[in-house]
Each structure stands twice: as structure tokens, then as C-alpha cells.
Amino acid sequence: MHLLVLCLLSVWGLAAPEHYAVEDICTAKPRDIPVNPICIYRNPEKKPQEGEGQEPAKDKLPESTNPRVWELSKANSRFAVVFYKYLADSKDSGENIFMSPLSISTAFAMTKLGACGSTLQQLMEVFRFDTISEKTSDQIHFFFAKLNCRLYKKANKSSELVSANRLFGEKSLVFNETYQNISEIVYGAKLWPLNFKEKPELSRQIINEWVANKTEKRITEVIPESGIDDLTVLVLVNTIYFKGHWKSQFPAPNTKLDVFHKANGETCQVPTMYQESKFHYAFIAQDKVQVLELPYKGDDITMLLVLPSAGTPLEEVERDLTSEKLQGWIDSMKEMSLFVYLPRFRVEDSFSLKEKLRKMGLEDLFSPENARLPGIIAEGRTDLYVSEAFHKAFLEVNEEGSEASAAGRDCIQLGCLCSSLPCQVRGLTGHLTVLSFVARKAEFHLVTSIFVAPRSSIAVLPVPNPL
User: Fold this and answer.
1) What is the DSSP pairing of strand 401-411 with strand 97-99?
2) Which residues of 40-74 are buried (b: 16+ CB within 10 A; e: fewer)?
3) In the predicted structure, residue 201 carries a pLDDT above the cut 90
4) Which among 27, 83, 282, 388 is least surrounded, fewest beta carbons within 10 Å?
5) Given pLDDT bands bounded at 50, 70 and 90, which one contains residue 455?
6) Strand, coil or helix: what is 201?
7) Domains in the chain, start-ordered, CATH in brackets?
8) 189: buried, middle or exposed (CB in 10 Å: 19+, 13-18, 0-12)?
């Protein structure tokens, strides 16, 4: 058996022409990359999945949007909400959640393209790829590239959103040439040969250094000690780095220490920012939530905050949350003048994805006996499986804006973020339930790139009418 380490990138194997050149993946057509998956999954009956719900009748394709990219972004949102619930169930009530569902989904989508049999079926179902059309599914790596082109294209100098991918492979093995070509062309993930067999610790240090360089030193140890051994075959790494400035900044003189109340009754003091400005906001009475959007300069990316109404338990909002409901809340927002209080915080954490994904039904991929990944190593070897998946990330929110980094690795190992704000503001209403970074292109919710549930507090109060 050989271990495949997934560090938030993806593993795939494809059957296609050995060599072809693509000058710009963002302008390429599907025919420019004639890739056929090694195995194709066909869903005999499309049944509604948990978190999928029914598409609203008014839901129509936004102008100038590729319908395949739109399908993929909706599938990712469905996965994000469902995975969030499983992650929340694994946490204590005082703990926080911070993760990048797009990174996770992308990494395992690449794994899907090298998978067959029940391994492929479980990947399709868990990541909601079976809810999209067959045409989109068969070319899913191509449309992931298109989605990334829209998401990471630099539109202004005020915000920076960068993703970097890399494959680190055992140098004594021959990897599927098509797999290497597609990973480099579509995701910029070039293969870096390392000596896992004889120098696993040195290999770990090299990978961690690469991640640190790609995340402005915010993520330094994505692979922990003993995370790589002499059986490791491939490590797939994805990093995301975001730094943005608020469109309407919080004046620094307004930041004051406020008394916060912890769940255990203790109190602590937390710097709390404040401003009065116009923001998009909605109160959804039937769902007992408030929704607030804080845009970054350029309006390409916004921070979305969802707060339960007073007396509404967090668990109630989490239980009933779906991607369609979340999108409906976003569509309901209108611009209005508000007082906004928001804690200033900086957090970093990591966790394993393996057990959460197994509970969702992704079992064979992590099994040495049952995993089928014939499209990764040359000659169709199938003795590969994913031993672990980790996600690690960093987030800082202050008066000027936000800075976030995420890194994942596949042993297969993935990377992840967690935030830790165990306090509540005294006398202010609203406990932050969902904090999400949303990419908006052509005036639509493209994808939730970072999904958070810090159990902290913010307050949103309407500005009184001067009479």
C-alpha cells in the first residue's frame, strides 16, 4: 500500500493526449483541453441531497456567466453548508469554526478525476457533484479552472486574493503524464520530486517552507511532525491568501475595550470596533436572523455576517440552514444606515477533515483495502489511498480590513482554519453565527470561499431617524 497525502489540493488521473499547449486557461474552450476522465459516474436517479432543497423559481443564470461555472458554484455552496453542520457537531459549544469549502471541494474534485468504482461514487455524492449536469461533471476540472479565473482575477489594487497549488511526489515513482500535464495547465500545480522514502522529515520541511512563502508566512506548519513517512507517495497542497481593505473603514479612535461574557460565566475585555455607515442588511423574521454585508474596496469580495435574533439558539439556525436559504437571505438585503459593532480579532487553528468526511459517506477513499485511484501513478496502479486530510488557516480582522490565509495538504492531507472568540458583548444583541467571505462577480453570489462560525458577538443597530 502507498499513502497519498492531500494537503488541500487535488489528486486526479486522466486519459487524454500526452501533450498539448494552452496559452491561457481563462480564455480556453473545453475542446482546447480534450480530457476524458478515467472513469465516468452516472447517477441513475437524482434525489435531493441534504442541504440541496429546491431551486427557487426566480433563480436564473446571471448575465455573462458560464452556466457550467454557475452550476459548480451552487454545488460547492451545498457542500459547504452540509459540511459546516458536520463540523459544528464535532465541536464543543464554545468552540469556533473556520474553513474554506472551495479549497476542500477543489482538492477532492481533482481526486475524483483519478477515481473509479465506489470511490468515485462517494466523491460525487459527498461533494454534491451528482447534483450538476453530466456535461459539467465530465469536465469538472475545466470548469473549476474557469471558476478560479473569475475568483482570483485581480480587479483592483485594494484587495488581494491569491491561490497557489503544488504537487510534491516521491522521486522514485513515475506519475501519470496526463495527470501532471492537466494539474499544471489547469491549476498551475507543477510536480516537485522529493525523496520521501529516504528523507521524509526534510521533505516535510521543504513543503512547509513553500506554504509559508505562499501565505506571507502566516501558515508555517501545515504538515505536523510525523505527517510524512517513507510510504508517502504524493502530497497535494493548495494555499489561499486574502488581504482586503474595508470599503468603509472602522475609525481607529472608535475602538474601545468592551466587557464580553464567556459561555462559562467569566468575563473578558475585547477591543470592539464601531462605525456608522450605509450597509446592505436584512432582518428575516421567519428565520429569526439578521444578515449584514461588509464590502471590501472594489466590491469584488464581501464579508457576510449572519446573526440569530435575540433568544434564538445558534443550533436552531444551524439545523435549518441550507445553501438556498442562505442565498435567499443575501437576495433580501437592502441598503440602510446602521451602527455596527464588531470585535477586532486575529485567529489561527487547524483540524483534520478525515472523520467528518467519512461520516458524510466518503469512506472508501480513506481505506487501504477499498480505495480505487488508478489514474495517478503510471500504468494504472491502484494501491493508493488517502491517509489523512488537514486544513489550516489564519484570519485577522481589524479597523482597516481583513487578512486571511488557508493551506491544505493531502497525505492525501488538507489544511483548515478555526477562529476562537468565546465571548459575548454585554448589552449588545446578536451572536455571530456565520461569517462568510463571498466573491461577487456580475452581481451574484459566486461562491463562499471561506465559511466561519465564530461563537462571538457583534451588534447591528439601526440609525434612529432624526425628527
Assistant:
1) unpaired
2) ebeeeeeeebebbeeeeeeeeeeeebbebbbbbbb
3) yes
4) 27
5) very low
6) helix
7) 2-40+63-245+347-411 (3.30.497.10), 252-345+420-462 (2.30.39.10)
8) buried
Burial class from Cβ neighbours inside 10 Å (0-12, 13-18, 19+) for residue 122 reads: buried
Tens digits of residue pLDDT in 140-174: 888 888 887 777 765 556 667 777 778 888 898 88
Q: Check: CB of residue 1 under 8 Å from CB of residue 383.
A: yes
No. of helices (H) and no. of strands (E), the chain: 10, 18
Q: Is 146 exposed, middle or buried (0-12, 13-18, 19+ CB in 10 A)?
A: buried
Cβ neighbour number for residue 1 with a 10 Å cutoff: 11
Q: What is the longest distance spanned by two Cα atoms in the chain?
A: 78
Helix axes 177-187, 140-152, angle to 10 degrees: 30
Q: Among 346, 307, 338, which Cα is nearest to 425's?
A: 307
> Amino acid letter at 291?
V
Amino acid residing at 365 = L
Main-chain phi, psi angles of 392, to 5 degrees: -140, 140
- Dihedral sign from CA coordinates of 115, 120, 125, 130: positive
Written in H, E and C, the secondary structure of 288-341 is CEEEEEEEECCCCEEEEEEEECCCCCHHHHHHHCCHHHHHHHHHHCEEEEEEEE
Reduced to 3 states, what is the DSSP secondary structure of residue 200?
helix
Given this model, what pLDDT does residue 124 score?
92
- Cβ partners under 8 Å of residue 86, min gap 6: 356, 359, 360
- Output the pLDDT for position 53: 42
Give the HSE-up count for residue 137: Cα atoms under 13 Å, Cβ half-sphere. Answer: 21
Task: Select from 238, 443, 461 the least CA-distant residue to 336.
Answer: 461
Cell 520530486 sits on residue: 193
**Euclidean distance between CA atoms 455 and 266, whole angstroms:** 15
Terminal Cα-to-Cα distance of the chain (whole angstroms): 75
Instruction: Look at residues 444, 445, 455, 435 and name the one whose alpha carbon lies nearest to residue 100.
Output: 435
Question: How open is the CA angle 418-419-425, to the nearest 5 degrees?
Answer: 155
